[in-house]
Each structure stands twice: as C-alpha cells, then as structure tokens.
C-alpha cells in the first residue's frame, strides 16, 4: 500500500466511497424513484406531476398495503437523511482521527517515517472502514497501531455503522427526526418498512434482534479470543488495556472490514475456525427465538425447538472445541495436526463413515525415533478430551434425524 502516492490514495478513497454497500444502496433508491416517476408520467400521459400537497393528502386516503404516490417523497426523505447523516459522521470522524494522530507522537511518527500524509491517512482509513474495504495506507495494515488504543477506538464504530448496524442506526435517525419534525412521512417510513422496498429499512423488532445478535457474536468472539491469545506471542509488549482494545478491534473487524492488528497466521486454529464462520455470515444475520403473531398460527413448535442450532452449527462448535483441546499438537506438529485434518475427522465421525487421514511420522517437524505410522485412526493421537468430544460427535451423528429441522431461529439476510 505504501507505493501509492498521495493523489492515488485519494482516488482509491473515492472508489471505496462510491463502491461501499451503504452508498451503492442509495443507487437503488434513485433507480426506484426514476422508475416510479416514469410510470407516473405514463399513467397521467405526462401531463403534470402531483403536487406535494396532494401527496400528503393521499397518505391519509390510501391503505398501508396499496401506497403508490407517497413512495417517491419518502424515498427522497430517506436519501436526504442518509446523505446528511453520513456527511456529518464522516466529517466528525475525520476530524477526531486527524487530531489524534497529530497530537499523539507514536502514531504521528509512524506516518512520518512512512511518508504518509496525516489528512490523507485519516480520510482513507475512515472511508475504507465505513465501506468495509479493509485497506489501510500502511503495508502492515493496523498492526503498527496496535498500541494506539485511542486510534483503534475512534475507527472501531465505523466497522459497525457502515455494515451490520447501519439499518438500526438508520431507523434510529428516522425516529429521532419524526419526534423533532412531527412529519407524517417519517411515521409512514417507520410503519411500512417492507412496502418501501429498501433493504436497509428494517422493522423495529428486526433491528432489536439484529443489534442483539451482532453484540452477542462480538462478546463470544472477544471472550474466546482473550482466553486463547491473552498470553500468546501476538500480545507481547501490550499492557492489559491495550490487549483488551486490540482484541475488541480484531474480533469486530472479522465479520466484514478485515482490518487486523495481529498477524493472522499466528492466531490459534480454534479462533481461525470461528473467524471463518463469522466471515461466512451475511451482515444482517439475526437470531430470533421468539415468534410474532403470524408465525404462531403457522408454527406450533415450542420455544426449545426454535432455540436449538442447525446441524452445521453444532459441527462448527465441535471443530472449535477439538482445536482447543489439541492446540499444543497444532502448534508442535502442524503437518499432521491442522484444521483440515481435524475437520475431516469430525465430519467422518458425524457421518459414521470411518474415513481418517491417519498419522505419518515423516510429517513431524521434530522427528521422534519411537514414532510409528498409523494410516487409520488419526484420532488415536488426540488427547483424552479430544477423543471424548469425538465420541459425542459419533453419537450426535447417529441421532441427527431428531434434529434435522434445527436452526429455525436463525435468519441469514
């Protein structure tokens, strides 16, 4: 990244800005408004457009499910609110990041030694984070700033605001504007989110569950990451506060932005499996263990039936647990013990197949003269805890027909 000139970084910033998920979603609104305007002109033989007064009047006259004309005005309102909010957010964030780098010598010296303009770095980083691009003007990404906890905390909110929590923030802004202005358009937006056809305008219940799911994922990742990596090599030179902030920044970036303060190669295999799952999930994935009134009539399953996970979820949990129990072997004997061989063994046990990669002494990094090759039963080299977990996997595989409909509470969107 450091080979790019200042002007090239500015150009990349513009490309990230217009290519981000939030900004491309605005294109949908403009196209919908254009199509609506064209259809309206054809319907009225291009005579004249309906005035804003008549639009407001029609809002009272039409039923919720058959809205046509107010949609154009409401789209305009969404566009103005989104653009104004993003401009303020981007300006304030840019100012804070620039001030931090200017007055914190350690962060300022890093950029000066690399010949990177402070203002360009600030703008580039904020836009890249908000647009979920993950690019940073330094070759080491954010690893050179892992001791600058203040900078990480300033950048951190944009990871969520530009992706997973954009919809709840949008609804919060519309609610705030409704309470201030008392305009009917805002009430219509809040009460008819599905009719608007804007993917980021979600219902209140959906937003609450989305917020809970996002923070739930972060808490789980944060706790597991700290437990596994607190005393590892990647944490060397950091105090307790810096470890906490850096860990929080790392796990929050995993789902979308991809900015990293640690060497990914040095992170334990169990954490990497968890990261892979987090990267797979769409931004608006929600866990909805409760049912609305419409679902109650269609689905009479109990709450327990809705809380249980899917088959794939349990397999991922088993793989993570075994990676934890075999973490020492994963470190000392990586050619035999790795995530791929463990995954194959777990899936084989789940399907009651019996296929195994075996164990080869020739793949040992530290040769053992007493070692014997074993072409079957790779799990025979596992720890007692790992073997017990694999036994549970085999039982689970035999009884999987009793849980084939699990995971109903999860919605990937």
Automatic annotation (TrEMBL):
InterPro entries, A to Z: Cat_transpt (IPR003445), TrkH_K-transport (IPR051143)
Membrane topology per record: Multi-pass membrane protein
GO cellular component: plasma membrane
UniProt KW Transmembrane keyword: yes
Keyword line: Ion transport, Membrane, Transmembrane, Transmembrane helix, Transport
GO molecular function: sodium ion transmembrane transporter activity
Localisation per UniProt entry: Membrane
Positions of transmembrane segments: 12-31, 151-174, 208-228, 265-287, 307-325, 337-355, 375-396
Entry superkingdom: Eukaryota
Primary localisation category: membrane
Keyword Coiled coil on entry: no
Family as reported in the entry's similarity comment: Belongs to the TrkH potassium transport family. HKT (TC 2.A.38.3) subfamily.
Protein name: Sodium transporter HKT1
